[in-house]
Amino acid sequence: SIVGNYIRNTNNGVQVRDTDNVSITGNTVLVTAPGLGHNAIGCNASNNVTIADNTAEGSGSDTAVIYVADSTNIVNVSGNIVRAAGRDGIQVGSAGTLHATVANNIVYQGGNLGSGGAALRIDTDNSLARNNRFAITNNVIEGFSGHGINVIGIPSRYLSITGNRIFDTALRGMNLDTIFEAQITHNHMADCGNSTTALEQVYLDSTRTVFAHNTIIGISGGGASATRGLNLLGTDNEVSHNVMTGAVQDFGIRVQSGTHRIFENALEGNATAPMTVVGGTITYRRRGTTAVTFSATPTFDVSVGDVIDFGAMTANVTAITLNN
């Protein structure tokens, strides 16, 4: 265990390698002049790792402030305050990292727009890591010169990205590239993608993923053309019950490819249209009012929760059929 220390150094801070059952908690680690490959907290080839409740600052332009790689079994990175990132705030992943939780961290300042850095980088560049069951929950990201959350590498399954608050990033709030069967819910994003190279607040290339109950507001694109709240690729995804609004965005949702179910979203304030489909197909339905002509034996379809407007009563109703 490494607990409760104040560490100030010019290059690396805390480095752990080839050690199991690691706990790095309650430390303040400041790296004042980091070079390439330098981290405030780094952990390699170690099992059962907890990095929690630290204040960590500084990293090289090619790496993260908190870096956990080649680590298997349980990885818990939670409750940390991270700032002054050279490229990434927190990176978890690479070979063999399974069952990781990244939760309740605060990441702000720093980042590297040119290298596509991210406040939270989930790296699945190894075949063992692609079924990693990562949970990314209740983190706060603000003012980062890169993506908010970036999932990269070999197709990743079973991600849960829930309850995160992401504000004012230069690149996408979420860059989710080639994921499967994920749950992305109850996140709040505002004014993400505010550089001229970013065209959307969320990029989602996925299969059988649920994207629901998220809020995406404010600007995106920094003046670039064809901006959007969500750019959707892949196939067989469900996008529902989201709120997307922003007068600077051209489209709330842009469907680029695949077949998806899109329903019950509030898409408002878009400069061009709420949604555009440039490739693929969608099933799109929004709750409304359905008029039913009067009959003694009416049939109502209530499967999408419509308000039923029944015609003028001219006789007694003897039977009603409800389709749900």
Topology (elements, then pairings):
Elements: E1 2-3, E2 6-9, E3 14-17, E4 22-25, E5 28-31, E6 41-44, E7 49-52, E8 55-57, E9 64-69, E10 75-78, E11 81-85, E12 88-93, E13 100-103, E14 106-110, E15 118-124, E16 135-137, E17 140-142, E18 147-153, E19 156-157, E20 160-162, E21 165-167, E22 174-180, E23 183-185, E24 188-190, E25 200-207, E26 210-212, E27 215-217, E28 228-235, E29 237-240, E30 243-245, E31 251-255, E32 259-263, E33 266-268, E34 273-277, E35 281-285, E36 289-292, E37 299-301, E38 307-310, E39 321-323
Parallel strand pairs: 1-4, 2-5, 3-6, 4-7, 5-8, 6-9, 7-10, 8-11, 9-12, 10-13, 11-14, 12-15, 13-16, 14-17, 15-18, 16-20, 17-21, 18-22, 19-22, 20-23, 21-24, 22-25, 23-26, 24-27, 25-28, 26-29, 27-30, 28-31, 29-32, 30-33, 31-34, 32-35, 36-38, 37-39
What does this structure look like?
The protein is mainly beta and 324 residues long. The chain is 0% helix and 51% strand. The strands form five sheets. Strands 1-4-7-10-13-16-20-23-26-29-32-35 form a twelve-stranded parallel β-sheet, with no helix packed on it. It is elongated, with a radius of gyration of 23 Å. The mean pLDDT is 84.
**What topology, given as strand order, has the largest sheet?**
1-4-7-10-13-16-20-23-26-29-32-35
Please report the number of helical segments: 0
* Derived structural class: mainly beta
Helix content: under 10%
Sheet with the most strands, sense and barrel status: 12 strands, parallel
Query: What is the number of E strands?
Result: 39
How far the N terminus sits from the C terminus, by CA atoms, comes to 57 Å
What general form does the structure show? elongated
Radius of gyration: 23 Å
Bin the strand percentage: over 45%
- What are the low-pLDDT stretches, counting only 5+ consecutive residues below 50? none
In round numbers, the mean pLDDT is: 84
